[in-house]
Each structure stands twice: as structure tokens, then as C-alpha cells.
Design brief:
Isopropylmalate Dehydrogenase, 11 helices, binds nicotinamide-adenine-dinucleotide, binds 3-isopropylmalic acid, binds manganese (II) ion
Length: about 350
């Protein structure tokens, strides 16, 4: 298995190189046979050469690699994020990674909410434009586009994944009162697909009221299905419920090809970039999702266990109230991984 590594920008350039040695260590210990190759796609290359996703990149990724581990994109020198859309949205759409799994475990409940976000369409399709008047934008349009084919295969995949992991409740998040055309397509498909899953109890909530209820009490939620933009917003709320954006991870997958892109939920965090204090937990957890995806569940569990112990120690990074740095955090994780392999003590499932 070959993994393409894209650190990207800002803290992505700090957390990804910090996490890679832990993956190599796991590789040695569990014999995973994963290899990592780093690509310099991001703001620097965009500014130097005008290149975002280089020509042929999608073909190369499809033929020579099975997954991507990504840091983050975003740079204050490119305020419109043109490079980020080309690279990040280009990868998600170009590789048809239409399922974005963003699980989060609220601090007070310790029960994971499996958030699934549609990852290729909706308001992210890039259909739209502007009309200028007297040299200024007078009209701006971003179209929300959903096709039956994509919503059906997405909803079906999510319901199957939830059922197979023993979840019983699933909530569709929508806004069909104000955005009726795509909203009602989602509702119709959700209701139809649900009839094939007797084990699942379905509910539908308007996204505004859903956010209200989620923040007040996340405990009733098990599976959540959302369109692209709603899922993006809800995943940051989920991260806040966990204790911070430094903790939340994400897997974008194409169920048909098995291809995966694994990344944190957070961005390039320009406010702390270059200071060495970014929390690598989210990116390391994204790597754990990748290990799970390839069936290396023991290695994923070992990594999660070490991460949980470190994030509860005083080597935690400042966002979690600790005195650690990106480097000391991962050094502590590696130490625990090494110790774990020699004494083999705790085999329990960790809680963040
Ligand atoms: P952000 O997620 O980068 O940061 C939001 C806040 O969370 C900041 O205060 C930041 O310091 C903090 N934070 C985030 N990750 C952290 C970590 N690992 N450790 C400690 N603190 C952390 O969101 P933003 O500031 O709105 O966006 C910055 C740039 O990133 C923008 O260009 C945006 O478009 C981009 N972005 C990219 C991605 C991605 O690549 N997947 C995701 C979100 C935002
Ligand atoms: C995310 C980010 C991206 C998104 C941006 C940077 C395009 O916010 O991965 O959550 O909206 O999907
Ligand atoms: Mn986001």
C-alpha cells in the first residue's frame, strides 16, 4: 500500500511530519507494509509556479497510491483560497470521495456520533458566477446541485455502515422548509432507503434546530446524515463538543474503489502556525481512521490508546490546557507505543 502525504499549509506542515514517525513505528511493529511519499502541493507552490493540483496528479494518485494523508490547506496570502479549492475539493471530487465520515465523541457523553457528510456536491459543485455593474459585483450566484444518483448511493452507504456498526438511530439533517428542491430530494431518498433497514430508527431535523439540540444534549444522536455544507458546519460543532478542533478527524472515501483521503477537520490555523504548538491529535486520529480503513484495527487501537493517554497528560498542547508542543506530544505518543509493545498491558478501547 502506498500513501500519498500532502502536508499542505500552515500547521499542516507541522502536524503531518510529526505524525509520520509514529506511523513508521506502527508499521515496524505490526508489519503493515505501508509506504509514505510526500507531495508539496499547497500555497508555496501555488505562489511560486501557479500550480495547485499538478496535471496528471489524479491519474498518478489512482494508479500508484491507495490513500492520501492530508494536513490542511489555507494561507493568508491567498485570501480567496483558490489553491485550496483546486487541491482539496479537486481531490474529493476527482477521486469521487463522496462519503465524508467525521465521527466525534462529545466530552460529557463519551458516545461517538457518526456524522456522515456528502462530500462532492451541494453548494460545493462550483456552479455559479457573478454579474458586474460599474466594475463591482452586482449579482453573485452559487448553485446547490444534488443528483439522485449521488444522494442514493451516499445515503445507502451511510445506513449500511451505521447498521453494520450496531447503531440504531439515524438523523437526517436538512433545511427543506427554506431550500425545498434539494431538501425534498434528500427526504424522499432517506425515507425510501430507510425501509430496507429495519434495525434503524430514522428521524429528520431542520439543521438549525438540530444544531440547537446537539449543543444542548448530544446524547440522543448516534448517526447523522448531512449534505455537504451542513455537514461541514456540524463537524466543527462536533469538534467543539469534543473539546476542540485539535481533536477531530475525518475520512473521505469512495466505497466503490476503496480510495480514501484522511485529514483533520481543522484548517491551517494561521493564528498559531509556525509556533510549534499545534495539536497533532486530530491528524494522528485521521491516520488511525486510515489504518482502520485498511483493516489494521490493532494498530489503529494502539495509536488511539497512546494518543488518549498523551492528551490527558501535561504534554498535551496548549489548546487542551497542557504545556506540550507538537513535537513533545508526538514524542510522548511514540514512547507510549514502544512501551505498550513491550508490556502489552492495556487492551481497552480508549476515550478521548
Ligand atoms: P482553523 O480550523 O484553521 O482554525 C480555527 C481555530 O482552531 C483557530 O483558532 C486555530 O488556532 C484552532 N485550531 C485549529 N486546529 C488546531 C490544532 N490542531 N491545534 C490547536 N488549535 C487548532 O479554521 P480557520 O482559521 O477558519 O481557517 C484557516 C484556514 O484553513 C483558512 O484558509 C481555511 O479556508 C482553511 N481550512 C482548511 C481546511 C482543510 O484543509 N481541510 C479546513 C478548514 C479550514
Ligand atoms: C473542511 C474545510 C473545507 C470544506 C474548506 C477548506 C473548503 O472547511 O474540510 O472542513 O468546507 O470542506
Ligand atoms: Mn470545515
Amino acid at each position: 500500500m502506498r500513501i500519498a502525504v500532502v502536508p499542505g499549509d500552515g500547521i499542516g506542515l507541522e502536524v503531518v511530519p510529526a505524525v509520520l514517525p509514529a506511523l513508521t513505528l506502527l508499521d515496524d511493529r505490526f508489519g503493515l507494509d505501508l509506504t509514505y511519499e510526500t507531495f508539496d502541493w499547497g500555497a508555496e507552490r501555488w505562489l511560486d509556479e501557479g500550480v495547485g493540483l499538478p496535471p496528471g496528479a489524479l491519474d498518478l494518485l489512482t494508479t500508484d497510491y491507495q490513500a492520501i494523508l492530508l494536513g490542511a490547506l489555507g494561507d493568508p496570502r491567498i485570501p480567496d483560497m483558490a489553491h485550496g479549492r483546486e487541491i482539496l475539493l479537486g481531490l474529493r471530487r476527482g477521486l469521487d470521495l463522496y462519503v465524508n465520515h467525521r465521527p466525534f465523541t462529545p466530552r460529557d457523553t463519551r458516545q461517538t456520533v457518526d456524522l456522515f457528510r456528502e462530500n462532492t456536491q451541494g453548494l460545493y459543485v462550483g456552479v455559479g458566477g457573478t454579474v458586474a455593474q460599474s466594475g463591482r459585483t452586482a449579482v453573485a450566484i452559487d448553485e446547490c446541485v444534488y443528483t439522485r444518483e449521488t444522494v442514493e448511493k451516499f445515503v445507502r452507504y451511510c445506513l449500511r455502515a451505521l447498521r453494520d456498526s450496531g447503531r440504531e438511530r439515524v438523523t437526517l439533517v436538512h433545511k427543506s422548509n427554506a431550500v425545498p428542491h434539494t431538501g425534498q430530494l434528500w427526504q424522499e431518498i432517506f425515507r425510501t432507503e430507510l425501509t430496507h433497514f429495519a434495525e434503524l430508527r430514522g428521524a429528520e431535523e431542520y439543521v438549525d434546530s438540530f444544531c440547537y439540540h446537539l449543543v444542548r444534549d448530544p446524547s440522543p444522536y448516534e448517526g447523522v446524515i448531512a449534505s455537504n455544507l451542513f455537514g461541514d458546519i456540524v463537524s466543527d460543532i462536533g469538534a467543539a463538543l469534543m473539546g476542540g478542533l485539535g481533536l477531530a478527524a475525518s475520512a473521505s472515501i469512495c466505497p466503490e474503489t476503496g480510495y480514501g483521503l484522511f485529514e483533520a477537520v481543522h484548517g491551517s490555523a494561521p493564528d498559531i502556525a509556525g509556533k510549534g504548538v499545534a495539536n497533532p491529535y486530530a491528524t494522528a486520529t485521521a491516520a488511525a481512521l486510515m489504518l482502520d480503513h485498511f483493516g489494521h484495527s490493532e494498530a489503529a487501537l494502539a495509536l488511539r490508546r497512546a494518543l488518549t493517554a498523551t492528551v490527558h497528560s501535561d504534554v498535551a498542547t496548549p489548546d487542551m490546557g497542557g504545556h506540550g508542543t507538537t513535537t513533545t506530544f508526538m514524542a510522548d505518543v511514540m514512547e507510549r507505543l514502544e512501551k505498550d509493545s513491550t508490556d502489552g498491558s492495556d487492551r481497552s478501547e480508549p476515550h478521548a
